[in-house]
Design brief:
This is BTB and MATH domain-containing protein 43-like. It comes from Temnothorax curvispinosus. The chain contains 11 helices and 10 strands. The protein is an alpha+beta fold. The chain folds into 2 domains: 102 residues, Serine Threonine Protein Phosphatase 5, Tetratricopeptide repeat (Alpha Horseshoe); 90 residues, Potassium Channel Kv1.1, Chain A (2-Layer Sandwich). α5 packs antiparallel against α6 and α8 crosses α11. The chain is elongated. It starts with a strand and ends with a strand. The relative contact order is 0.15.
Length: 244
């Protein structure tokens, strides 16, 4: 990766050694080798137990396709999902068959991934799975899982899929993903404009993306100059970030 910035040394006061100290903060986009992401499981607070007055063995068995997943009501409520909280409050049976709600294979697989995340704290990080899981996390209102998907989708950004991902962010109301993609597209607009995905956009979608990147804030580098007895911060916009 090549980083290019431009500034005039005459504008600064240097320290006694003549060194100019530059403080930089970067977010690196990269691919993981592992196909599974693991994170901390939900904390079960005593207040949740008291509210539902449920014993450890009280659970719901979800029938998803040919598989069964048994999850405690306490854990479902701890996910902070309005969908699963509603199930805890209204579903009195021990079994919930999801056959009528889940029609396509993608819907079944994504819902299974949500349930596995609840019980194991792990999700697959393959690109296509993360996209489907983000959509499902938004649909079933699982905020923590949704944000996790947004973070890890950033590691899959390329010039070719940036347009696809920002459209996914729009449809899933994924603001973190949307904001970072806008910055990425703004930095690499010339390359992305040449992609098939960008050229295939409708005028409405193209205008929406261009308006968003115009509003996005440029990346900045904080450069601290030293003078006695005061220190002053200055910020400079990155002229360009390119891949080599």
């Amino acid at each position: 990766m090549t980083l290019l910035i431009e500034f005039s040394p005459e504008e600064f006061l240097f320290d006694r050694t003549g060194a100019l100290i530059v403080h930089c903060e970067f977010e690196i986009f990269h691919n993981l080798i592992d196909k599974t992401i693991r994170m901390k499981l939900y904390d079960l607070e005593d207040s949740i137990v008291d509210k539902f007055r449920c014993k450890d063995e009280e659970s719901i068995e979800f029938i998803v396709g040919k598989n069964q997943y048994i999850i405690s009501r306490k854990l479902l409520h701890a996910t902070d999902s309005s969908y699963f909280k509603y199930i805890c409050l209204t579903h009195k049976e021990k079994v919930k068959n999801m056959t009528d709600e889940l029609v396509t294979d993608n819907e079944i697989q994504s819902f299974e991934q949500i349930l596995m995340y609840f019980t194991t704290g792990s999700i697959e990080q393959r690109y296509y799975m993360l996209k489907d899981l983000l959509t499902a996390a938004d649909k079933y209102d699982v905020p923590r899982l949704k944000l996790i998907c947004e973070h890890y989708l950033l590691r899959h950004i390329t010039f070719e899929n940036a347009v696809e991902l920002i459209q996914l962010a729009f449809s899933s109301n994924a603001k973190f993903l949307e904001t970072n993609l806008a910055t990425f597209i703004k930095l690499h607009i010339e390359e992305i404009r040449d992609t098939i995905a960008f050229k295939s956009l409708s005028r409405e979608d193209s205008n929406k993306i261009m308006e968003l990147i115009e509003k996005s804030k440029p990346l900045e580098i904080s450069i601290r100059k030293f003078s006695s007895p005061f220190m002053t911060d200055k910020k400079f916009t990155l002229a360009n970030i390119g891949f080599t």
